[in-house]
Design brief:
Chain B: Pathway: Carbohydrate metabolism; tricarboxylic acid cycle; succinate from succinyl-CoA (ligase route): step 1/1. The complex is a heterodimer. Chain A has 13 helices and 18 strands. By secondary structure, chain A is α+β, with helices and mostly antiparallel strands. Chain B folds into two domains: about 120 residues, Rossmann fold, CATH 3.40.50; about 150 residues, Rossmann fold (3-Layer(aba) Sandwich). In chain B, helix 3 packs parallel to helix 4 and helix 6 runs parallel beside helix 7. The two termini of chain B are about 20 Å apart. Classes of the chains: A alpha+beta, B alpha/beta. At the A-B interface, helix 9 and helix 13 of A face helix 4 and helix 5 of B.
Chain lengths: ~375, ~290
């Protein structure tokens, strides 16, 4: 789960990681109040779940209250387009107003869960403020990675390695040690999968300060972090995906025209690939899970059909524990309830498949039966070509 | 022969009295698995059907001489359950649970290092040696005993699809291992490939990967260096958009790494026959097997 910069900075503050003073606002009047409290100059920063906000015009500096109001006016309500938002952009609802700081040096710092070696890895670079993937591609020698075994936790030598790679000495190296310790505790304590500070700055008066903050939280951990779960911003999420989540369906909206409903994530991805190979584009990813019920199938249908681009649907179910006859009943029931207006190709296999196929054939519904995956792909291609 | 489990494997089920635990324990027993006990704290002394229930793994292990544990414990307590089994000296742990926080698995993975226990999963369908022993939630009926194919996969129902197609070609399986869809798990591709390479009954291997991480690439390098038996590969997620978690916590393309294309390239460079059309995987396996035998 992603959270906003201002929310991440709140968590930073609570864990002793120094961030600029700031206030979150949703109107120009709010910005006026923020300026009165923070002083000038200020930075006005769009709060959306996407990087590259500066280049897209979502971050502005203001030397006067008038400029700050104007910045807020321009940013709040805008469709911010960055390299991470896609061409339609993301609507901005809130801005973070922060007291301006003088920057002596910009650094890069992040912590990630490193799945390759099961460590929590610190990634740092003296080239702050830039796209770290570009730095990694062009000048990999300017990036240092330090893996931390979670059974041991962060130690002094880890911090020393990072400080030395960043060329920091004296009191700033000491500050970095404290910051890394706090950041590590935040990372573990909040079940993060990523914490990124880009840039981490050294201010004019030699203070380390997290000028930006990005946090991704492991969704599987939210049961033990109700305070973080409450930070979820529904405005940042696709409404269909939100609805699907309520029904315990794993749905991701895509740009194509062939909807699909599959049990199991791997098979669902493979089914999307199959649609593409058939010359069409998948409209979604939808995993109804191992224990799909008639109700789930019905909700899956409704969500797929609420996308106006959908020209046809492929249902691909491998019945294991879930029997095909039960599933077929569910499809018939759901199709009746939803009122299908596009062709549906059904491919099912596994336990009680014969009985399942008979139920579908006798239902009187306009369902196209596919005997195997290749057959299904061909039938989907025919629909896409209509 | 088979890998990791056979008809002698003695299984206990952690979480045996829960709904899922009960259902799948019965399915495993019906398949012929030697389920010798179960564990649910506070329910020691009871029975689930004819299976004795114990309060702790250590007790169960001692009382019924179990060597393997199958875990159906909910996510908040699953890492605990794994560590308890490790400490009790269980040789093989198969954890089905989906949704364990990755931080918990980081701890488990590091705790496991250097210990004699093997962990399969979590977030996996389990392991089956057809005709001998099913430790997991896969439908037993689609399998065919006797080899020649070994199967290793990160996915559940996709594995069933693969197995179904193999069986449809009259190609049996020695052992099928679902290693799970989480970013941090126990047994990996290389562990399984190594075991299949050493297993005389396994003549060829199907390896099913998906987007995210780099284990398929590492396994490919291992295959190129050490594997004498033919490997057929499949990767799911060619059309997956970057930055989105495709159901499995581990299935995500991030920062340009973990793409399906990169994995397919690595596999082909290692001499693995990559299937690009899932509908034809079974016949492709038959062709490759025929050529090598």
């Amino acid at each position: 789960m992603k959270i906003h910069e201002y929310q991440a900075k709140e968590l930073f503050r609570n864990h002793g990681v120094v961030v600029p003073d700031g206030m979150v606002c949703d109107s120009p009047d709010g910005v006026t109040a923020a300026v009165a409290s923070l002083g000038l100059p200020v930075a006005v920063k769009a709060q959306v779940h996407a990087g590259g906000r500066g280049k897209g015009g979502g971050v502005r500096l203001a030397k006067t209250e008038t400029e700050a109001r104007a910045a807020a006016q321009a940013i709040i309500g805008m469709e911010l387009v960055t390299q991470q938002t896609g061409s339609t952009g993301k609507r901005v609802h809130k801005v973070l107003v922060e007291r301006g700081v003088t920057i002596k040096q910009e650094l890069y710092l992040s912590l990630i869960v490193n799945r390759d070696d099961a460590t929590i890895t610190i990634i740092a670079s003296p080239d702050g403020g830039m796209d770290i993937e570009e730095v990694a591609a062009r000048t990999p020698e300017r990036i240092v990675k330090v893996g931390i075994n979670p059974l041991i936790g962060i130690k002094g030598y880890h911090a020393k390695q990072v400080a030395s790679a960043l060329g920091l000495t004296g009191t700033i190296a000491k500050q970095l040690g404290a910051l890394l310790g706090n950041l590590y505790r935040l990372f573990v304590g909040c079940d993060c999968s990523l914490v990124e500070i880009n840039p981490l700055i050294i201010t004019g008066d030699d203070q380390l300060l997290a000028l930006d903050a990005k946090m991704d939280i492991d969704s599987n951990s939210l049961f033990r972090h109700p305070e973080i779960a409450a930070m979820r911003d529904p405005l940042e999420e696709d409404p269909q995906e939100l609805e699907a989540a309520q029904f315990d369906l794993n749905y991701i909206k895509l740009d194509g025209s062939i909807g699909n409903m599959v049990n199991g994530a791997g098979l669902a991805m493979a089914t999307m690939d199959l649609i593409k190979q058939a010359g069409a584009e998948p409209a979604n990813f939808l995993d109804v899970g191992g224990g799909a019920t008639a109700e789930k199938v019905e909700n899956g249908f409704r969500i797929i059909l609420s996308d106006p681009h959908v020209k046809g649907i492929l249902i691909n179910i491998f019945g294991g524990i879930l029997r095909c006859d039960v599933l077929a009943q569910g499809v018939v029931q759901a199709a009746g309830a939803v009122g299908l207006n596009v062709p549906v190709v059904v491919r099912m296999e596994g336990t009680n498949v014969e009985e399942g196929r008979r139920i579908l054939a006798q239902s009187g519904l306009d369902l196209i039966n596919a005997v195997d995956l290749s057959d299904a792909a061909g039938k989907v291609a025919a629909i896409a070509g209509r | 022969m088979a890998i990791f489990v056979n008809h002698q494997t003695r299984v206990i089920v952690q979480g045996i009295t829960g709904q899922e635990g009960q259902f799948h324990t019965r399915q495993c027993i019906a398949y012929g698995t030697n389920v010798v006990g179960g564990v649910t704290p506070g329910k020691g002394g009871q029975k689930m059907d004819d299976v004795p229930v114990f309060d702790s793994v250590a007790e169960a292990r001692q009382a019924v001489n179990a060597d393997t544990s199958l875990i159906f414990v909910p996510p908040p307590f699953a890492a605990d359950a794994i560590c308890e089994a490790i400490d009790a000296g269980i040789g093989l742990i198969v954890c089905i649970t989906e949704g364990i926080p990755v931080m918990d698995m980081l701890t488990v993975k590091n705790y496991l290092a250097g210990k004699p226990t093997r962990l399969i999963g979590p977030n996996c369908p389990g392991i089956i040696t057809p005709g001998a022993c099913k430790i997991g939630i896969m439908p037993g009926v689609i399998h065919r005993a006797g080899g020649p194919f070994g199967v290793v996969s990160r996915s559940g129902t996709l594995t069933y699809e693969v197995v179904h197609q193999l069986t449809g070609q009259q190609l049996g399986q020695t052992t099928c291992v679902g290693i799970g869809g989480d970013p941090v798990n126990g047994t990996g591709f290389i562990d399984c490939l190594q075991a299949f390479e050493a297993d005389p009954e396994t003549k060829a291997v199907v390896m099913v990967g998906e987007i995210g991480g780099s284990t398929e690439e590492e396994a490919s390098a291992w295959v190129a260096a050490h594997m004498s038996k033919p490997v057929i590969g499949f990767i799911a997620g060619l059309t997956a958009p970057p930055g989105r978690r495709m159901g499995h916590a581990g299935a995500i393309v991030s920062g340009g790494s973990g793409t399906a294309e990169a994995k397919i390239e690595a596999m082909e460079a290692a001499g693995i026959t990559v299937c690009r059309d899932l509908g034809t995987l079974g016949s492709l396996c038959a062709d490759v097997y025929a050529k090598h035998s």
